[in-house]
Amino acid sequence: MNHYLIHPTPIRPLLIVDSGRGISQIDFITDNSLPLPPDAIERITPLLQHTATQLTEYFTGRRHSFDIPLDEHGTPFQLRVWAALRLIPYGSTWSYKQLASEVGSPKGFRAVGMANHRNPISIVTPCHRVIGANGALVGYAGGIGIKQALLDLEKHISSGLSQPLFINDPEVV
């Protein structure tokens, strides 16, 4: 059985799903519909609470990496891409080409982009840290405004500023 929690953030609320084997989904809620598994019920589990705490720490600048058990479902290639995404340091970005090289497919940047787009676990598996080779922000399922907000937050904290960056852009929230 899947359990879920809606967790507030300075950007938008997050949907967090616990499959019973690990976190299987973290998505920004961008409209009135929730992309829930069919059997999901709203109930806070210890893992959901642990995940929500770590995400709150991330948004306040106190956490740069996560130690949450994941329950990912994808092709072997997608799983390799998602694992590589978690290697991108906080506050840094990689191009799709860099990510493709990391997974052993240097000419497969389009396939990497598709796997990145299908990442079901936002923030913890930081697909927002992948940008175009020219530095352009491209391809984020939650929208470019959310991608920019996450990158700005990490840049702000990485620059040594102790105060968190609060998002007040009506285009994002």
Q: Describe it for me?
A:
The strands form two sheets. A four-stranded mixed beta sheet has the order 3-2-1-4, with helices on one face. It has a two-stranded parallel sheet with strand order 5-6. The model has no long low-confidence stretch (mean pLDDT 89). It has helices at 46-59, 76-85, 96-102, 109-117, 144-158; strands spanning 3-7, 14-18, 23-28, 41-42, 94-95, 130-131. With 173 residues, it is of the alpha/beta class.
Give the arrangement of secondary structure elements:
Layout: E1 3-7, E2 14-18, E3 23-28, E4 41-42, H1 46-59, H2 76-85, E5 94-95, H3 96-102, H4 109-117, E6 130-131, H5 144-158
Parallel strand pairs: 1-4, 5-6
Antiparallel strand pairs: 1-2, 2-3
Summarize, please.
It contains 5 helices and 6 strands, in the order ββββααβααβα. By secondary structure, it is α/β, with parallel strands linked by helices.
Overview features:
173 residues; alpha/beta; 4-stranded mixed β-sheet; 5 helices; 32% helix; 13% strand
**What is the subunit organization of this protein?**
single chain
SSE run: EEEEHHEHHEH
Give the mean pLDDT.
89
Which of globular, elongated, flat, extended, rod-shaped describes the shape? Answer: globular
Termini Cα gap: 31 Å
Name the beta content range. Answer: 5-15%
Number of helices: 5
